[in-house]
């Protein structure tokens, strides 16, 4: 009896503790409202989420394809992170008007810059469609259900939005044990209004990424436009600023330790129910390989970026994207090992197995033995997957070369128009060459090809490719072999030669393509990897089915417990407090950072820690305007909270108990980078840029008082 009690205790420990949790907004009144109110929330449940009335959820948007933003004025003004707007800012920039480097603020609406391809989505409503989905899968095997699922989701979404301009998406929750439909309204006319200089918006660079204390002004400003009828419309000079259902007032009161904080946004993905088998695969193989492949690519790019400002601008967006998760997965591995999350998960699984055995649950009896078999079957191929996906296919020339596969198929097997396919690819090639930095691509390619040969077992390699390299260039143990091969490939490929490309497009033949060195490289590794994709598919299918059963068993064992599903880029709410923390013995981190610390980090001319001369002058004079913190007698730059977030929450509003904006969430802390898998109630912190620093940058540094006047400031 004692053993069973211990087992159940361990099982219950998997449920939310402290400020853990990414909650569904429409269920807050039933699930967490009382706890939120006890922590300091002053709003009613209907003020947080309502279908029929204006509510806080109406001010929260999906920004672009993977971030969150918030509406902060009655004229559709958007705040989000600098790194979320980075691509749009870089696209709007040129060497003559380098907004990325120098910053930009539109003084009038006519000065705002259209952002082609950028859209925002507003949440209209959330509905539980579990019964509809389950009714559609009665009697189906897991394999058949997986094949049918996308069609079922699509049919439900289309039926729900028929006759409207809305779009809907069905999300599987708890590993497809519950199904929720989110309905959205998408606006496609989004314009750049303001951005600080990159030295402010990316202050600290990769060195400070995922670190606290932090002094980054990670914000950018956009505006959403609509047709004159208030409905979504393609870009037009006739469009007008959107009149939102709700926008966030902005607090100038600042934060103190213990203050309530709440975050609405779109967390991308977590796997809090990951098994011990998944933890071991991540720490032993997957994460180290991922980090190593990205490390090669980043170093090759950085060597060229630091030589030339034009190259830095050219590669900036791609570099930032690569670097972010390079550091994340490095930190995740270290934290998973440091806190022995494997052992914790193993205990939880033993507890669930004890419950299964005790209650004679035959449906769940083989879960963990089948997990063991699935992981054992996949393990021999796991490193090759990362080396191929994060390494070999990383260089843009290889990505483009892989797109020529259809052309070769048409030329050798028929079934398509090779000339038409090439005509379509010509525009893509032009874009490739515009953004291509040959020195960095050439270096990363030879290093990646060398690493693959060195680290992947011989029987999983493209043997003919390496044999030909050896015959033509020398020993595979010599760096010069790979360097000479890469130089020859870049010099002789039709992909990079205008005359050869034009000739090939005019008269395409299979031999010319098959003998092209860059296409042959892409093809060799692609066909080699394709031999092992069945093993990956089998592993993913087994893992999905077992995960479904695991969560079904877990929820049954904890039927009375309130739980939140893993993040999946559907709107969630998390809440907590402004709070300092102790990362290790003898060290305590304050809950805010100030301009004093910013000046201490400042290094003139440094790649990561430089600042605009005007900012240094203003801060040294303590010219903080109305944005100074009355207690600190300084300008607060950032603060931390205990709210639970993950990627996708970038740009999310940090909101006080009165529903006022106090900051923008932009990062997590290094000591808790295992948060996608394991939430640490003592160490997890959300790093936020203080809204007063944002306003100071706009007003005092940027001189854009017109933007400040548009906001509703609460003093």
Question: What do you see in this structure?
Answer:
Strand 15 and strand 16 form a beta hairpin. With 715 residues, the protein is of the alpha+beta class. It contains 29 helices and 22 strands. The chain has 3 domains: 347 residues, Thrombin, subunit H (Beta Barrel); 141 residues; 139 residues, no CATH class. The longest helix is centred in the middle third of the chain and has 30 residues. It is an enzyme of class 3 (hydrolase). One of its GO terms (biological process) is peptide catabolic process. Catalyzes the removal of dipeptides from the N-terminus of oligopeptides.
Provide the number of structural domains. 3
| Count of separate DSSP helical elements | 29
- Work out the strand percent: 5-15%
What structural class results from the helix and strand content?
A: alpha+beta
Identify the CATH architecture of the largest domain.
Beta Barrel
The CATH topology of the largest domain: Thrombin, subunit H
Number of strands: 22
Q: What is the level 1 CATH name of the largest domain?
A: Mainly Beta
Unreliable spans are: 1-18
Distance, first to last CA: 59 Å
Helical content band: 40-55%
Rounded to an integer, what's the Rg over CA atoms? 27 Å
What overall geometry do the principal axes of the alpha carbons give? Answer: globular
Average pLDDT: 94
Main sheet attributes: strand count, strand direction, barrel closure:
11 strands, antiparallel
GO molecular function: dipeptidyl-peptidase activity; serine-type aminopeptidase activity
Pfam family, one: Peptidase_S46
Organism: Phnomibacter ginsenosidimutans
Protein name: Dipeptidyl-peptidase
């Amino acid at each position: 009896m004692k053993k069973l009690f211990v087992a159940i205790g361990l099982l219950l420990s998997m449920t939310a503790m402290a400020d853990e949790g990414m909650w569904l907004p429409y269920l807050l009144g039933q699930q967490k409202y009382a706890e939120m109110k006890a922590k300091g929330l002053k709003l009613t449940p209907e003020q947080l989420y309502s279908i029929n009335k204006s509510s806080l959820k109406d001010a929260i948007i999906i920004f672009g394809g993977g971030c969150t933003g918030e509406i902060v004025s009655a004229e559709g003004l958007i705040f989000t992170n600098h790194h979320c707007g980075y691509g749009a800012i870089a696209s709007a920039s040129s060497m003559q008007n380098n907004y990325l480097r120098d910053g930009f603020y539109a003084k009038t609406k006519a000065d705002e810059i259209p952002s082609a391809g950028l859209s925002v989505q507003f949440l209209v409503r959330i509905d539980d469609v579990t019964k509809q989905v389950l009714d559609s899968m009665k009697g189906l095997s897991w394999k058949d259900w997986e094949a049918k699922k996308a069609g079922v989701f699509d049919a439900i979404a289309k039926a729900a939005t028929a006759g409207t301009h809305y779009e809907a998406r069905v999300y599987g929750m708890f590993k497809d044990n519950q199904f929720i439909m989110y309905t959205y309204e998408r606006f496609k006319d989004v314009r750049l209004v303001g951005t600080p200089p990159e030295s402010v918006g990316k202050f600290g660079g990769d060195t400070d990424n995922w670190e606290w204390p932090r002094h980054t002004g990670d914000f950018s400003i956009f505006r959403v436009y609509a047709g004159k009828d208030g409905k979504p419309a393609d870009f037009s000079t006739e469009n007008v600023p959107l009149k939102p259902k709700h926008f966030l007032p902005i607090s100038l009161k600042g934060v103190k330790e213990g203050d309530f904080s709440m975050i609405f946004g779109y967390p991308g993905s977590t796997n809090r129910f990951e098994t011990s088998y998944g933890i071991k695969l991540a720490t032993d193989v997957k994460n180290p390989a991922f980090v190593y492949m990205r490390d090669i690519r980043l170093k090759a790019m950085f060597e060229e970026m630091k030589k030339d400002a034009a190259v830095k601008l050219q590669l900036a967006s791609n570099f930032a994207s690569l670097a972010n998760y390079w550091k994340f997965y490095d930190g995740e591995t270290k934290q998973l090992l440091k806190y022995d999350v494997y052992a914790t998960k193993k205990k939880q699984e033993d507890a669930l197995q004890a419950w299964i055995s005790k209650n004679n649950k035959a449906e769940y009896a083989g879960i963990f033995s089948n997990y063991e078999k699935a992981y054992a079957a996949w393990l021999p191929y796991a490193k090759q997957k990362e080396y191929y996906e994060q390494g070999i296919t990383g260089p843009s020339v290889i990505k483009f070369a892989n797109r020529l596969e259809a052309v070769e198929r048409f030329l050798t097997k028929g079934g398509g128009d090779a000339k038409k396919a090439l005509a379509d690819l010509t525009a893509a090639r032009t874009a490739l060459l515009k953004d291509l930095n040959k020195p960095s691509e050439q270096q990363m390619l030879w290093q990646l090809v060398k690493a693959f040969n060195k680290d992947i077992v011989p029987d999983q390699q493209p043997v003919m490719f390496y044999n030909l390299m050896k015959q033509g260039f020398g020993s595979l143990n010599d760096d010069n072999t790979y360097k000479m091969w890469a130089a020859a490939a870049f010099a002789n490929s039709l992909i990079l030669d205008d005359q050869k490309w034009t000739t090939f497009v005019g008269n395409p033949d299979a031999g010319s393509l098959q003998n092209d060195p860059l296409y042959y490289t892409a093809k060799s590794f692609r066909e080699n990897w394709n031999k092992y994709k069945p093993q990956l598919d089998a592993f993913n299918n087994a893992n999905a089915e077992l995960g479904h059963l695991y969560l079904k068993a877990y929820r049954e064992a904890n039927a009375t417990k309130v739980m939140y599903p893993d993040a999946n880029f559907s709107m969630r709410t998390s809440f907590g407090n402004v709070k300092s923390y102790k990362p290790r013995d003898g060290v305590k981190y304050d809950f805010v950072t100030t301009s004093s610390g910013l000046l201490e980090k400042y290094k003139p001319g440094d790649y990561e820690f430089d600042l605009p001369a005007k900012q240094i002058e203003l801060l040294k004079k303590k010219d903080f305007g109305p944005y100074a913190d009355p207690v600190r007698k300084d300008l607060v730059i950032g603060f931390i909270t205990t709210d639970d977030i993950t990627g996708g929450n970038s740009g999310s509003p940090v909101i006080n108990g009165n529903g006022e904006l106090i900051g923008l969430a932009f990062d997590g802390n290094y000591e808790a980078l295992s948060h996608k898998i394991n939430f640490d109630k003592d160490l997890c912190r959300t790093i936020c840029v203080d809204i007063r620093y944002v306003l100071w940058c706009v007003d005092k540094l940027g001189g854009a008082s017109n933007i400040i006047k548009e906001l509703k400031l609460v003093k």
